[in-house]
Amino acid sequence: MITISLCMIVKNEEDTLDRCLSSVADLVDEIIIVDTGSTDATKEIIRKYSDQVFDFEWIYDFAAARNHAFSQATKEYILWLDADDVFKDVDRERLRALKDTLDPAVDSVTMNYHLAFDEEGNVVSSLRRNRLVKRSNGFRWIGAVHEYLEVSGNIINSDIAVTHSSIHHDSDRNLNIYEERLAGGEQFSPRDLYYFANELLDHSQYERAIRFYGEFLGTGLGWIEDNIAACGKLADCYHGLKDEDRALEAALLSFRYDQPRAEFCCRIGYHFLNKNNINAAIFWYKAAVADQPSGDQWGLRNLACSTWLPHLQLCVCYDRIGQHQMAYAHNEAARTYRPSDERILLNKAYLEAVLNPQTQAESDTSQGGDV
């Protein structure tokens, strides 16, 4: 059995930290927490679980803080989490089994990161991250903002998921850090250009975001997943500016980097649906259904775009051209993912009435008396 150090950085996390630590404390062998300046009850909560709390002066550098936490670890492997992350029960058991069976020759274990869920509890946004790494390798965090853990060697993908369950966050913090670095004359790396553009988009600064996404893609040095995501975010910028033709061009630009992905197929399908070009819309929504991402993909994926959403839109498309049986079939496919969705249930009732008018009339008569 391997031993594990949990390493975290925190600041004013009293609302989420207890929930996080209680989900993992019995699965690790030590808990190392670096505090970057809490003024609430964060430290009191930490001491319920560990006496290894280290103060670290905040220097606007997340990688520096995480590396300091890693430097305090003493066990064979290091697990990292944020305060608003948790292990659900099924993933606690998977982590327990991994700890019992992991080959010490493994350098890093990746885990899924579940970021968002729909009303039915389905994961709709997920990516994969290196979560458990061999301490002796001395892997380092890179990047002052949106930092990443640089790893190499024998990496395995696990079926364990970390669930993000945020309550609140400082929406201006990262943007302000980037703005200060930019004002100081710093030359941004391609990764910084991408994440700075993301912050600008999140703050509805569409024109500036477009500029920096363009600079990022123009370097030709971006990670392929960031390149593809940048195309989607460019489309979001143009949509925010109500320039739908340029939004379409941005979506199509993603094909430069990979085969058409479901997220972009849905974007393009929606464009043609709004133009009432139904056959084109059907083509792209079918392509979205055909793109089924694997669990090993690293980039952020919107799983709705390859499951219920294109089926729901295909229902709309086929209804518009009078192919009601096809519309019903796709609505039923969507219902397998979201059985309680009001839109899908309304479609079901409407299409059943269209396809079986006599049955529906008899039902209405039996329920409502004389018509």
Summarize this, please?
The chain is 48% helix and 17% strand. It has 371 residues and is of the alpha/beta class.
How would you characterize the overall build of this protein?
With 371 residues, this protein is an alpha/beta fold. The chain folds into three domains: 4-164, Alpha-Beta Complex (Spore Coat Polysaccharide Biosynthesis Protein SpsA, Chain A), CATH 3.90.550.10; 171-258, Serine Threonine Protein Phosphatase 5, Tetratricopeptide repeat, CATH 1.25.40; 276-360, Serine Threonine Protein Phosphatase 5, Tetratricopeptide repeat, CATH 1.25.40. Helices cover 48% and strands 17% of the residues. The protein has helices spanning 17-22, 42-46, 62-71, 89-101, 173-183, 190-202, 206-219, 224-240, 244-253, 262-274, 278-290, 308-320, 324-337, 342-355, 357-368, and strands spanning 4-10, 30-35, 53-55, 77-80, 85-86, 108-117, 123-134, 140-142, 148-150, 155-164, 301-302. Strands 1, 2, 3, 4, 5, 6, 7, 10 and 11 form a nine-stranded mixed β-sheet that branches. A hairpin with a 5-residue loop joins strand 6 (108-117) and strand 7 (123-134). Helix 12 (308-320) runs antiparallel to helix 13 (324-337) and helix 14 (342-355) crosses helix 15. The chain starts with a strand and ends with a helix. Mean pLDDT is 93; it is low at 365-371.
Low-confidence parts, pLDDT < 50 over ≥5 residues?
Answer: 365-371
Outline: globular
Q: SS-based structural class?
A: alpha/beta
What's the helical proportion of residues?
Answer: 40-55%
The description of the largest β-sheet is:
9 strands, mixed
